[in-house]
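2024-03-11 09:14:02 DEBUG pipeline.ingest accepted 1 chain
2024-03-11 09:14:02 DEBUG pipeline.ingest length=604
2024-03-11 09:14:03 DEBUG pipeline.predict start
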Amino acid sequence: MKKLILFVSALASVAYAQKAPRIQSFQELVKAPKEGVHAIADEKILGVTLWSDDFANPANWTLDNSGQSGIEFGWNINSTNDGWWANSGIASTSGGNYAELVNGDAQAATQALNVVYTLTTAQPIDIAALGGSNQVSLQFQQYGARFNDLQEIQISTDGTTWVTVGDNLDKTVLSAAGGSAYANPDTKIINLATFLAANPSPIWVRFSWTTNYPGSATNPNVWITYGWYIDDVKIVTNPTNDLSVTSSYWGSVGLPYYQIPNEQVTEIGFAADVFNGGVNTQNNVKLNINANSGAWTGSSAPVSINSLDTAAIELTTFYTPPATPGAISISRSITADSTDDIPANNTMSNIDFTVTDFIYARDNGTPAGSTSNGTDGFEAGNLFDIFQDATLKAINVRMPSGASGATVGTEIFVKLYSVDATTGDFMFESESAPLTLVSANLGTNLVMELEPYVDVFAGTTYLAVIGSYTTGLRVSNAGKSEPQTSFFLDLADNTWYYTTNTPMVRMNFDPVLNVAEQTEISQAVVMPNPTTANATLRFDLQNSTDVEVVVTDVAGKIMQTNNYNQLTAGSQEITLASEQWAAGIYTVSITSNGHATTKKFVKR
């Protein structure tokens, strides 16, 4: 069941928005060639080849290099690698000439700005005259890697108005933080049937390159490219029977969990969107689920999908894993009455997750890239649904090490928010003591205890985050999130954004965790945090004792001082007059018998 929690309809005092993907910096370039997988070319013949071009005759193509000259700018057609990064171009089936996109040498900072480079068929392709209909696909081989590129494939019926039919935004960004080059070669197939009339007019085909960040066009980093190589372009007839999975979903109430504590085990649903790109109607189409080699199986109700239609297929029965620790592996498949001509495009990868004793994780456990916020502080984390009442004791986080890792000496914290079911606001619940990073904290799963622990309740959604009020924090990402299920608070503008990366921020219900013993003071917390009015400082005293509370701003100016003689043991509450203070970050120090506890909070 795909039931995602959407917050944009409930904007109270907090703003939620999409955070634009981060622009890669020059320092994150992979300066030595990182070749893609060299694979035996798979032509994936769909049917009859109506038209093809292998760049043997460059005159078959028109190059528009946006006023730039020289082999190192724009498109060129030859059999020599002219770019700064790759070693030997594309390992295409035909060999010989190929088309190559270059935009200067990133290492020498010679890239051109404000350019759109296009490679277009010199003459239109008359599909109808070649014996075809709208049931055709564009197929080509490519190589390269994404950085800040926008690599698009377009068609036109008049040579003037262009329609984008595909791009490479599904490819990972290759940077020092991770990612990879394309397979060499990578065969790309784009079904054109939905873009063409039944009796199609002749079409031009175009490959277009520019920046993916036009709003930052003055930044030279957005014009860096590793290069884009094209060869063996074809128009081929579509297969008779061809189902393809365009998207798939799984999870509990729409959220996939890769580690599930046994006390939070609940029903898991499955769904997929399936496109019929073949000529024939496909009958008795089903989504099939197999958990742990047949320990549980299920199928969706059968449906028929007409040619060029998409069906949303969903299981109406749910899988509940055993509530005992262990690995779960789930295979998924699409079946129909007809034998699929291209089965590779309807396969789905296995889902592997673990039932644990106490760890609750949205990330898939494989670090790939990281989240940062330049010179500004931020918080980042994931939503978690609670299905059984429990006590949350800690939040586990992971930060990358190395040249692109978090900075040693950065002060970090974790926080827990609950989600107000009416407004969608994030309501502060608890946080950890601040931690100053040392090298041993990086590249490992770090346990940060909440002070105080939080009783979490079934039917409530919570947001667990890691954060820092200063620069230097990077959070490892592992996997992708549906929009509005992982979030990012930019402390520069105090706005919550959603992110489609999954930060490695996890809930930890370990029952043996104990807050470190302190001589007098424990369970200190400022609520609410952030605040727009007066805040409340809460803490526990183990014994009756003298206490001093001092609040300072980021410049060290004392904003409030309270001295108490022989406060009684037990819970204490002190009002902080923050409503009168300017927006910013404040530090609260609680001192007793020479021992101090500090907390930070934000005034908006």
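2024-03-11 09:14:41 DEBUG pipeline.report The CA atoms of residues 23 and 375 lie 14 Å apart.
2024-03-11 09:14:41 DEBUG pipeline.predict end
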